[in-house]
Amino acid sequence: MAECRAAVVTGFNQPSEIRSVPIPELEPTALLMRVDAATLCGTDVHCWHGRMSSDSLPYIPGHETTGVIVDMNGARSDLLGEPLNEGDRIISTYPHCGHCYYCTVAGEPTRCSNSYAFGRVLCDQPPYLLGGCAEYHYVPPGCDIVRVPAEVPSPLAASAACSLRTIMHGFERLGPLATHETVLVQGCGPVGLYALAVARDRGARKVLVIGAPDSRLQVAREWGADATLNLDEHSDVNARREWALDHTEGRGPDVVIQCATAAAIPEGLEIVRPRGRYLTIGGGDGNITVSANALRDRQIIGVGGSVGRHFYQAVTFLATRQKDFAFEGLISGVYSLDGVSQALQAMAEFREVKPVVFPNT
Amino acid sequence: MAECRAAVVTGFNQPSEIRSVPIPELEPTALLMRVDAATLCGTDVHCWHGRMSSDSLPYIPGHETTGVIVDMNGARSDLLGEPLNEGDRIISTYPHCGHCYYCTVAGEPTRCSNSYAFGRVLCDQPPYLLGGCAEYHYVPPGCDIVRVPAEVPSPLAASAACSLRTIMHGFERLGPLATHETVLVQGCGPVGLYALAVARDRGARKVLVIGAPDSRLQVAREWGADATLNLDEHSDVNARREWALDHTEGRGPDVVIQCATAAAIPEGLEIVRPRGRYLTIGGGDGNITVSANALRDRQIIGVGGSVGRHFYQAVTFLATRQKDFAFEGLISGVYSLDGVSQALQAMAEFREVKPVVFPNT
Amino acid sequence: MAECRAAVVTGFNQPSEIRSVPIPELEPTALLMRVDAATLCGTDVHCWHGRMSSDSLPYIPGHETTGVIVDMNGARSDLLGEPLNEGDRIISTYPHCGHCYYCTVAGEPTRCSNSYAFGRVLCDQPPYLLGGCAEYHYVPPGCDIVRVPAEVPSPLAASAACSLRTIMHGFERLGPLATHETVLVQGCGPVGLYALAVARDRGARKVLVIGAPDSRLQVAREWGADATLNLDEHSDVNARREWALDHTEGRGPDVVIQCATAAAIPEGLEIVRPRGRYLTIGGGDGNITVSANALRDRQIIGVGGSVGRHFYQAVTFLATRQKDFAFEGLISGVYSLDGVSQALQAMAEFREVKPVVFPNT
Amino acid sequence: MAECRAAVVTGFNQPSEIRSVPIPELEPTALLMRVDAATLCGTDVHCWHGRMSSDSLPYIPGHETTGVIVDMNGARSDLLGEPLNEGDRIISTYPHCGHCYYCTVAGEPTRCSNSYAFGRVLCDQPPYLLGGCAEYHYVPPGCDIVRVPAEVPSPLAASAACSLRTIMHGFERLGPLATHETVLVQGCGPVGLYALAVARDRGARKVLVIGAPDSRLQVAREWGADATLNLDEHSDVNARREWALDHTEGRGPDVVIQCATAAAIPEGLEIVRPRGRYLTIGGGDGNITVSANALRDRQIIGVGGSVGRHFYQAVTFLATRQKDFAFEGLISGVYSLDGVSQALQAMAEFREVKPVVFPNT
Asked: Chain A within 8 Å of B289 (Cβ-Cβ)?
């Protein structure tokens, strides 16, 4: 049985190790890809800290992965119905079954009962390679495959496989933006910046951003934010609310999108106008205290997960909106397989926002 | 200037007094109606306790009012465009302007900036008569008028002017129910029972009700609840959640409707299934603590206010669904003008749920 | 290789023949069911007449089939995620792939590029048994399986697998009905009667039915139609339109559902009120001439196909609404395998509306 | 009684005459504006030809009008609730009542039973001045008023009062565009170009345009059309359909918007993909022949009329999207009041697309 190199987490908060991991046999319709680029996001840090309920050791981190098909077991097509071939550069969804209650009756395949996420799966049993920080990645049956157009660099395509596809899902659930509506984004990490870009692209009248540090807000302004507020310089919640009201003729934004952390929810609910829509994307757990009044007269839309069309929309967005948004500015540091835990540590300390790992260089 | 008798609140928590109040001149397109029946709801108790931000003394309580037109200043039509005449029995919305940001741009006339509620307006200045607990009620310009069909008794029509029209608004914002969906209602007061009836009428697969006391749950079962849980007998939140899961194949209800008090929101959010819809209607203020996780993966729809079509739908529902639901069971005690504060006190002590005041008998 | 008896169409408009057809090997996750009941619908007549583009000879008619699982190749669950077992009584969707453009990107699995209908597939090549008029029916991989509750008779469950699931799909695309809305149904065959029942069940204010003959309209009235018009007795289109206006205060119905034939579309578009919704379900081809004016100010929603949740909703409806609608009145004559072409001929001559074939009796 | 100059149509197809028309007394809340710019559209030509059902002589043409408030009768605010003052530059909706069936129950104020259009009203009786081709324009009670920002020239604001606000209404009814969706626009007059611009602005993946002549398609390309097809050079309907399929991977556009004439509907329905959405805006009457098949599997959304928020969205779009679209290219020739019928004749002969009349210069 062939093997390949992988960065493996064997203990929470511990340095990852380079191990040799078996390359499994392919089930019918499964694929094997050679990893081109794996980007990391906040969830990878949570996993590394052992805070996700599904954590198990040892595992290969990374759920944002672009790769090139190097092996197939039987004919397989991408989600447009086009046949796939070895050599195609792709991203992949998590598997979903298409036949459970959520996939069928509820019409919510994002909650498929038989799905699981990459980047946190035991790597000492088949199919071993379900994380991006390895030379190869197994793509099991039941995943939707999206081809990456030539004009989209692999690290960006990888980031589309988590942050941007979640934003696409969020906007789908949000429904249409009208030309008179103002959107406020809480947060200016990759998720927040993508939210800004998509709000711009879908015709919001104005997009406001609250976040930090200023270097990220500078990117936000370059991407078309009408106004930004530096959280580090405006620590008073009421002052931030006043700022938002000042930019919306005293009413509050029609839509607020939380791309920071669940801790930002109470502030966001106070800022969005009565009858407005509050989209909450950023993670975090624990309890949140909000006013009954804010809950009574707003709509809150919680988002998590995504399905194939959101991946496709994400890649399409990257391919067609490059002239409007300098996407490459999103990627921060570059790492090899040896540097995975350093990258995670740098993220934990807010020194990195979107590092990329190149496992084959 | 002619005068009429009214029950007037002159001090919070104090007995109401019978006063003689002027009958105002009618502005163009205004109406005067002789009150047939005025029902009271929880909000009237809150006002009497001085807990509503807009409270002012003295005022005439009552915002659920059926009356007969006795005077008009100029031609006026109901909301179907049919001319109104003296002698018509009607209910009326609050005024709305039709030309403010919420009426026009936002498409949310329920938040009209120029509206105000009846039953809590100063009665020592024109137009004096803006509460139901008086012999006459002034209907200012800008109100939508709904005729009451002969088959709907005045007390029920009055209740439609608040509880049921709010439920109609809530279901409008909820969107369609599918035939496979289960609805759980929190609360079995008039609002909860109306929610149950409308959920039944709109084709929910099952409707579950949690509330108390058992006499109200008995009504719920007679109105078609598939299962009910007595809150007095099941004080453990987890047990209640298990009960709901047991009735929904372990998934949780697709829709939960809060018709109790804001304090029930955390429990409701834990009960509704992932990706489900939570409609919150019942009042109350203060802060609510919910889990970030519940907010992340649900949709919360806060409802307040209503516009003409909701009133029309409410009256239509009462007129056409009598064979399915014994609506008259909703009305509890009967009072004259002299008994208004007794009725409010009885509600505060949960001895009454929907008292009716007959000011002209 | 085992064989079974089947009614086979070997020439369009020709009598069907009883042939012995192979029972195929089961692909992984495929099922074999013994047919309990197969109902026939208008499409089966069209196929028999050779008017469907996909017709091919020889084939086994019947796409509305209830059966009992008698063989399985590997574990398989129903669309609720519950494991299936031999002996379970089921209906099945057509196969869909879950991975093509329509299944994934468009979010319209009803148009799955890799689906095909039962009841019109060549039966002289594997898997042979893809029509209901045979002792056994093959259920290929990729079908959603719905269990039939004990309280639903097999012939009704079979009819749910086409007429009623299409109605469920239609109402899904129609969106919510409001309590003030009136629905008019064109047609009172099984599809029209199911449309009436669902409109009633979802809270329409009134449901009107135009159709013939009177015996069917009698069923419509028993199922709660507020008014019916006999097409045979009112041949003037304008008179029919006037009748509809008379029942809707001169405005026209808010929703019209075409459950007759495409030839009824122009009349229906003239009847639905301005800004109303026109749902067109009934089949037929050729050209239709409509006024530009009617197209300009209405919404037309064309419906075809269905997916698993519509089947599940259909079966749920039959199981839970028996007390409201005497569904068994839908089924007309009873036939054995020998009588399949007689049944088709009787339908073509309008002597039957919903015959049922019992292949194993 | 003061009078002013107006271009008056006294006979269909006849030259307009300059007449002196009374300036009426203002009803309470009415306004008088001095006309800054009046643009003309195809409907004005239809009126001039006597082909609109509501035509009456004599009348002042023009329903796209920007003016400056010169007189008011009582306090009045714009649709944002901001007080209006003399000197404010504005556009106005047609009047609507806010209290009829369509305004209230149906939630479709665009069909207000008590509304009427400007530019085709008798001008020999009060309030005389209800068309744009006059020195002054009366704005009756019940109109929503939108302020024109300084950065929007009066002729463009005038065009927003018909073409662009209709497009805004159309996109509202269309619902959201997803990032993967392709829009095809039939027509490249002002309505078609605005449709292209809004589709671009709302994030369509691609926008295709079919129209003529090439000078207009050149504008379309400058505004971001991904591909255009010259109708004059491709007279074969099948070839045009093939072109659309070629640009959509063989599926057809997800959305087609008819901005030409009702005669284009059959072609558009054949081009839009199965399950796609067809938005029909362009006028014309008579009968249309379409295939039953196309009607069965598409959604057709007919659009007409608009309300205040669409006007506000239109003006907002012009004010904020100037850097993306060179709107001024829409306006063609300039005329004085004396040239109104020449402008109409030039439009009838396709020599003009969007002429502007300056009545006060």
From this structure: yes
**What is the pairing mode between strands D206-211 and C299-302?**
unpaired
- How far off is chain D from B96, nearest CA to CA, in Å? 9
Q: Which residues of A touch C77 (CB under 8 A)?
A: 99-100
Q: Which residues in A40-156 belong to E strands, given as ranges?
A: 64-72, 89-92, 136-139, 145-147
CATH number of the structural domain B3-151+322-357 = 3.90.180.10
Residue ranges covered by each domain of chain A: 3-151+322-357, 166-302
Write out the E strands in chain A: 3-8, 17-22, 31-39, 64-72, 89-92, 136-139, 145-147, 182-186, 206-211, 227-230, 255-258, 277-280, 287-291, 299-302, 334-335, 356-357
Q: Is A302 in Cβ contact with B296 (below 8 Å)?
A: yes
Preceding amide of B355 cis, omega within 30: no
> How far, in Å, CA of B348 to CA of D352, rounded?
72
Burial of A336 (0-12, 13-18, 19+ CB in 10 A): middle
Q: Kindly state whether D173 is in contact with chain B, defined as any CB-CB distance less than 8 angstroms.
A: no
| Min distance B286 CA to chain D CA atoms (Å) | 31
**D170: nearest CA partner in chain A:** A178
Query: Do residues B231 and B253 lie in contact, with contact meaning Cβ atoms separated by under 8 Å?
Result: no
pLDDT digits (tens, 9 = 90+) for C160-214: 989 999 999 999 999 999 999 999 999 999 999 999 999 999 999 999 999 999 9
C-alpha distances in angstroms, D117 versus C220, D122, D147, D306? 43, 11, 20, 11
Residue A189, min C-alpha distance to chain D (Å): 22
The answer to whether D312 contacts B106, with C-beta atoms less than 8 Å apart, is no
What three-state secondary structure class fits B336? coil
- Read off the pLDDT of residues A288-323 as tens digits, 9 standing for 90 and up: 999 998 898 899 999 988 999 999 999 999 999 999
Decide if C304 touches B, using CB distance below 8 A.
no
Task: Identify all chain A residues contacting D203, using CB atoms and an 8 Å cutoff.
Answer: 198, 201-203
- The answer, for D149 touching chain A at a CB cutoff of 8 Å, is no
- The tokens of B189 are what? 């007061």
Residues C281-331 pLDDT 10s: 988 788 999 999 889 889 999 998 899 999 999 999 999 999 999 998 899
Out of B98, B105, B309, name the one closest to residue D98 (CB).
Answer: B98
Q: What is the CATH number of domain D166-302?
A: 3.40.50.720
